[in-house]
Amino acid sequence: MTDTRHFTLATDLDGTFLGGTEEHRAGLYEWIENNRDSVRLIFVTGRDPAFIGEMCAGGNLPWPEYVIGDVGTTIAKVTPDKQITPIEALEKEIAARWNNSGPTVAERFSRVSGLKLQETPFRYRVSFDYDPDMFDPVAHDIARELGLDVLISDNRFLDVLPQGISKGPSLLRLLDHLNIPHGTTLASGDTLNDLSMLVAGTYAVAVGGSEQPLLRKLPDDPKILRADAIGAAGIVEAMAHFDLHPHSKAIYSHAL
Fold this sequence. Notes:
This protein has 256 residues and is of the alpha/beta class. The chain has helices at 13-17, 22-34, 49-57, 88-98, 102-109, 138-146, 167-177, 195-198, 212-217, 231-242, 248-255; strands at residues 7-11, 39-44, 66-69, 74-78, 84-86, 115-117, 126-130, 148-153, 157-162, 185-189, 203-208, 224-230. It has two domains: 7-93 and 165-255, Rossmann fold; 97-162, Hypothetical Protein Ta0175, Chain: A, domain 2, CATH 3.90.1070.10.
């Protein structure tokens, strides 16, 4: 399966694609819609498909072609009738590593102080609201015992995930499945749960306003930009910095 579009934007939503001023968001979204013949859009987010579908159907976001949701545990395509449909071949390993662990995770982690179970059910992860002042690090031991990973982001959320599964590995799995060169892709994010995506080997940007724990963990790498501009404007700044599209510099000078 080969798609000849020469630029792929793989972006987090909250604080990134949804971040910045209304003017900057509208400018980026309009540019994407006007360049669909050369731009491919992938959402890489902690949000679930239902939320993404509602936002796009409501006209608040351009529709992506693909969705990596639920912190990397969902890999899906958007069908012509705007359904977000999991790609079974890419999720098979995720499901196997999760091994129906949801009920066990909910029960074991319910005893950990500083965590409150989120009510939304997910297929291959369990999510909690996280209080850093009350949190008991024994959660990490429980996860290791179960063969799972813990990911804390924005100093507010804790996800229990299949071991080795997060945004970065799932993005690479999708790019390789679609035969998309890593060197034509820009990954963008702003919180610690974006780290694995930003260091996956594509071009990458931590947009302006990114949380400090993410910025501290990012390596010094010429393919990773710490942008000054906030949210959507930071994405445009990175497009121009890396010159990833023939119109990159033009949209940057117009938007900023």
